[in-house]
Amino acid sequence: MSQRVTSRSSRTSQFRTRATVLAAGLGVSVALGAGVASAADTTAASGAATAVQAQAAAQAKAAKAEAAKAAKAEMAAKAAKAAAAKKAAAKKAAVQKAAKKAKPSWVDPVKKYRLSASFAQNGGMWQSTHSGQDFAVPSGTQVVAAHGGTVVKAGGNGAGDGPAYGNAVVIKHGNGTYSQYAHLSKVKVKVGQIVKTGQEIARSGNTGNSSGPHLHFEIRTTPNYGSAVDPVKFLRAKGVKV
After folding, report:
1. Burial of 230 by CB count in 10 Å (0-12 exposed, 13-18 middle, 19+ buried)?
2. Signal peptide location in the record (predicted)?
3. What is the structure's pLDDT at 126?
4. Domain map (residue ranges) of the chain
5. 214 is a catalytic site residue
6. Three-class HEC string of 98-156
7. Which residue among the candidates 147, 183, 214, 216 is catalytic per the annotation?
8. Rounded to two decimals, what is the model's pTM?
C-alpha cells in the first residue's frame, strides 16, 4: 500500500514538473515572439522614416537645381539685353559720327561775315528792293558754292544780269533752284563746270554797284535776275545757321 502511494506521488510530481517546463517554454516563446514583432515594427518605422528623408532630400535637390537653372536663365537674359543695348548704343553713336563727318547739303557762301543789306530791303542802291542778302566781308575773302551744281553763268557785267552786279557767278542746283554770287573781285570757275558743296568758286570784292566790299548772294528760281527768293530763309530751312 505504501509503495503504491509513493509511486502515485512520484508520477504526480513528474506531471507537475513537465507542466512547469511547458509553461516556462511557452512563456519564453511568447516573449520571443513579442520581441521579434517589436523589432520588426521598429525596423519598418525606421525604413519608412529613411524613405521619407530620402524623398525630401531628392525634392530639395530638384528644387535647388530648378532654382539654379532659373537663375542661370535670368542671368543669360540680362546679359543678352545688356548686349543688345550696347549694340544699339554703338550703332547710334556710329550713325551720329557718320552724320558729323558727312558734308552738309548747304553751307554759307562765306565765313566770318556780318549780315548787312537784307532781302527786299529798300534803298537808293537798287532799282527797286534788294534782291538778295549781303554778307559784309573783306575783299579777297574765299567764296564757296553754297550747294553742289553746275555753273551756268560766270564773268563780268553780272554774268549777263547787268553791270550793277559787277563780276558774278550763277550755279544751277536742280529742282528749279539757282544761287548767285556778285560783286566779286575774282571769278575762279567757268560755265559748264561742275562744282561741289563748299568748293571755292570766287573771291569777294567791290565790283559793280557796291558801296563797300561784300558778297551779294541770291537764291533764284531761274538763272536770271527777277526770280529771287529770300536767301536767308531758304538757307535756314536747309539747316544753315545764317
Report:
1. middle
2. 1-39
3. 53
4. 1-73, 114-237
5. yes
6. HHHHCCCCCCCCCCCCEECCCCCCECCCCCCECCCEEEECCCCCEEECCCCEEEEEEEC
7. 214
8. 0.60
